[in-house]
């Protein structure tokens, strides 16, 4: 039985950049593009391309029935700005060790 819910993950070919408050938080040519039914396309950026030293772990965790449990990180002026799935479900294993931001610049 199909739920009609789909998730696809592709290697992106765009340059992705995340800037907040004038500071570059992430920049990558290796982002994955996750497309999910009912949601906008999201760019998952390899952790090595993210300024994780600027992020503080949040107490927030959310559960997605399709991807698993998400952990969040914040900046002093932006709570839960970034999230990741440290132990994603097998169907979306490609997003492990990648972080996602709400706002990205794509070129």
UniProtKB/TrEMBL annotation:
- Return the Pfam families for the record: NTP_transf_9
User: Domain DUF427 spans what residues?
Assistant: 16-103
Instruction: Determine the domain of life of the protein's source.
Output: Bacteria
Q: Which InterPro entries match?
A: DUF427 (IPR007361), DUF427_sf (IPR038694)
What name appears for this protein in its UniProt entry?
Answer: DUF427 domain-containing protein
């Amino acid at each position: 039985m199909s739920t009609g819910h789909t998730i696809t993950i592709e290697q992106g070919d765009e340059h992705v950049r995340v800037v907040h408050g004038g500071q570059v938080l992430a920049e990558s040519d290796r982002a994955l593009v996750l497309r999910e039914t009912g949601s906008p396309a999201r760019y998952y950026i390899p952790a090595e391309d993210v300024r994780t030293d600027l992020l503080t772990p949040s107490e927030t965790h959310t559960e997605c029935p399709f991807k698993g449990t998400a952990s969040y990180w914040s900046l002093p002026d932006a709570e839960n700005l970034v999230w990741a799935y440290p132990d994603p479900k097998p169907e979306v294993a490609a997003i492990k060790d990648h972080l996602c931001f709400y706002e990205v610049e794509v070129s």
